[in-house]
TrEMBL record:
<comment type="similarity">
    <text>Belongs to the TMEM175 family.</text>
</comment>
<keyword id="KW-0407">Ion channel</keyword>
<feature type="transmembrane region" description="Helical">
    <location>
        <begin position="110"/>
        <end position="129"/>
    </location>
</feature>
<keyword id="KW-1133">Transmembrane helix</keyword>
<dbReference type="InterPro" id="IPR010617">
    <property type="entry name" value="TMEM175-like"/>
</dbReference>
<keyword id="KW-0812">Transmembrane</keyword>
<keyword id="KW-0406">Ion transport</keyword>
<keyword id="KW-0813">Transport</keyword>
<keyword id="KW-0630">Potassium</keyword>
<feature type="transmembrane region" description="Helical">
    <location>
        <begin position="160"/>
        <end position="188"/>
    </location>
</feature>
<keyword id="KW-0472">Membrane</keyword>
<keyword id="KW-0631">Potassium channel</keyword>
<dbReference type="Pfam" id="PF06736">
    <property type="entry name" value="TMEM175"/>
</dbReference>
<keyword id="KW-0633">Potassium transport</keyword>
<feature type="transmembrane region" description="Helical">
    <location>
        <begin position="76"/>
        <end position="98"/>
    </location>
</feature>
<feature type="transmembrane region" description="Helical">
    <location>
        <begin position="45"/>
        <end position="64"/>
    </location>
</feature>
<protein>
    <submittedName>
        <fullName>TMEM175 family protein</fullName>
    </submittedName>
</protein>
Length: 207
């Protein structure tokens, strides 16, 4: 089967999950000293920002992955459903993290929970790609086996890095949060740089 319906359903889940994040930012009921009360919401702002960018990153890589996956079967649909199950859980973990930081209690548990969900999400994400690229059976002509293998190595690194962040968060919560935040530009920038280099190379080619 074609992947259009799978992608449309996935985009809907991504959109809902990323929108639900803002619900955690509660409007102050008492507007006396409003500036101070808004500043007190910084844990919610932090959880919202990191989680919004993380979900956006997963969506972008999911979109890039399905640029090369031409067809889907029931197993691929199942693996994609597992990924979406964990993506939909991120707003909950973001709320737990913000609440723990705001109350100054159980920050370690909250950071570990957040990281565990990110690590777990990496498994179905990688499973989708590995299943699709096996014998190049679900991939289209837009990518070679060698290029698919290079993408695979990059994807496989994700759960490892998020696992390191989770372990650091178990020791010191702020280190885990910093690691999760730093992984966002790490995973955004290389594709942008690669695309830029490809554009330069294309402009150098004679017509």
């Amino acid at each position: 089967m074609k992947t259009a319906r799978l992608e449309a359903f996935s985009d809907g889940v991504f959109a809902i999950a990323i929108t639900l994040l803002v619900i955690e930012i509660k409007v102050p009921e008492d507007t006396h000293d409003l500036a101070h009360k808004l500043l007190e919401l910084w844990p919610s702002y932090l959880g919202y920002t990191i989680s919004f960018l993380v979900i956006g990153l997963v969506w972008a890589n999911h979109h890039a992955m399905f640029d090369h996956i031409a067809v889907a079967d029931r197993m691929l649909l199942f693996l994609n459903t597992l990924l979406l199950l964990l993506v939909a859980l991120i707003p909950f973990t973001a709320g737990v993290l913000a609440s723990a930081l705001r109350n100054g209690e159980s920050e370690r548990t909250a950071v570990v929970l957040y990281g565990v969900v990110l690590v777990a999400g990496g498994f179905p994400f990688n499973a989708i790609w590995e299943y699709a690229r096996r014998d190049h059976r679900l991939l289209g002509p837009t990518i070679t086996p060698k290029e698919a293998q290079a993408i695979s190595r990059r994807f496989l690194l994700g759960p490892v890095l998020y696992g390191i962040g989770t372990a650091l968060g178990a020791l010191l919560p702020v280190l885990g949060i910093i690691t999760f935040a730093l992984l966002i530009p790490f995973y955004w920038l290389p594709p942008l740089l690669t695309r830029s280099r490809r554009g330069v190379a294309a402009s150098d080619r004679p017509d």
